[in-house]
Design brief:
By secondary structure, the protein is α/β, with parallel strands linked by helices. It folds into two domains: about 200 residues, Vaccinia Virus protein VP39 (Rossmann fold, 3-Layer(aba) Sandwich), CATH 3.40.50.150; about 60 residues, Orthogonal Bundle (Helicase, Ruva Protein, domain 3), CATH 1.10.8. The chain is built from eleven helices and nine strands. The chain has a seven-stranded mixed sheet with strand order 4-3-2-5-6-9-7, sandwiched between helices. A two-stranded antiparallel ribbon has the order 1-8. Strand 3, helix 4 and strand 4 form a beta-alpha-beta unit. Helix 2 packs across helix 3. The longest helix has 16 residues. The chain is elongated. The structure holds S-adenosylmethionine.
């Protein structure tokens, strides 16, 4: 039984799991909090969970206690494995731990859909994994939802709307194919050791189809060019993309003098479709 496991502080002492910076380790030791994060992933009964970076297993315990059918946890730091083995022993057949790098693992070979991904990850790895999970070849997604802890500033960039400083490539890329919202914010003191900044949990569910039609590569190029020079007017920022860009912007109802952060997803998709048409007629969309 999970309830019979010792408190996490004891586990950390017993296995000498002092957090290491090189692994980006900031542990959650409050089991009420890890249960809340697990619940933020929705109903786990009947779902397999892919947990990235379980560390000493606080969130893992939460996932199992909330009824996950099966948890596959991948952890890079071998020191954590004995502590995780104790959790596996308390829940026979429900937890499998793999030592390794989450970036190199294909969870589909180990899990059965529906699959929910839940992770409290080092921030750099989190953003890299999110981008991978949102784009081909990993798209269409193997997952039903992602519940991921990020630095609060990164979480705000994921859910940002036009007109805000946080709005940019990450928001557009995620929101084109998925629904994303912040479900929990946590102060630095929630972690051991405490990081410098606050954190937030983002819950992401995949849409059945992109919100507006567009060719993914063209859209990515347009958005990258627009936000690489976000202070410039779009007629200047997108100049290198296609000849006569001003006319294309006007044709889809975007003022050429507008700046990228004023433009919503729908208009970026319209521009991508228009430029793809130009490409189809023998024109060429330049790399930004
Ligand atoms: N989930 C635990 C918790 O909430 O207390 C630990 C969170 S800690 C922020 C991040 C964990 O991810 C660490 O245990 C670290 O060793 C592990 N980790 C870092 N990079 C990883 C990677 N590429 N693949 C798998 N695990 C990784």
């Amino acid at each position: 039984m999970i309830d019979s496991l010792p408190p996490l502080r004891e586990v950390i002492r017993a296995h000498d799991l002092r957090a290491k910076k090189s692994f980006g380790q900031n542990f959650l030791l409050d089991l009420n909090l890890t249960a809340r994060i697990a619940r933020a992933a929705g109903d786990l009964r009947g779902a397999d969970v892919f947990e990235v970076g379980p560390g000493p297993g606080g969130l893992t315990r939460g996932l199992l206690a909330e009824g996950a059918r099966h948890v596959l946890a991948v952890e890079k730091d071998a020191r954590c494995l004995p502590a995780l083995a104790e959790i596996a022993a308390a829940c026979p057949g429900r937890l499998r731990v793999i030592e390794g790098d989450a970036l190199a693992l294909d969870p589909l070979t180990h899990l059965t859909p529906p699959i929910k991904v839940v992770a409290n990850l080092p921030y750099n790895v989190g953003t890299e994994l999110l981008i991978r999970w949102m784009t081909p070849p990993q798209w269409p997604p193997f997952w039903q939802s992602l519940t991921l802890m990020f630095q609060r500033e990164v979480a705000e960039r994921i859910v940002a709307r036009p007109g805000s400083k946080a709005y940019g490539r990450l928001a557009l890329m995620v929101q084109w194919r998925a629904e994303a919202r912040i479900v929990l914010t946590l102060p630095p003191e929630a972690f051991t050791p405490a990081p410098k900044v606050s954190s937030a949990v983002v819950h992401i569910t995949a849409l059945e189809a992109p919100r507006y039609p567009a060719n993914a590569q063209v859209l990515e190029r347009v958005v990258a060019a627009a936000f690489n020079q976000r202070r410039k007017m779009l007629r200047a920022a997108l100049k290198g993309l296609a000849p006569g860009i001003e006319g294309h912007l006007e044709a889809v109802g975007i003022p050429p003098t507008a700046r990228a952060e004023e433009i919503g997803l729908e208009a970026f998709c319209a521009l991508a479709r228009r430029l793809e048409g130009v490409q189809g007629q023998g024109g060429r969309i330049q790399e930004p």
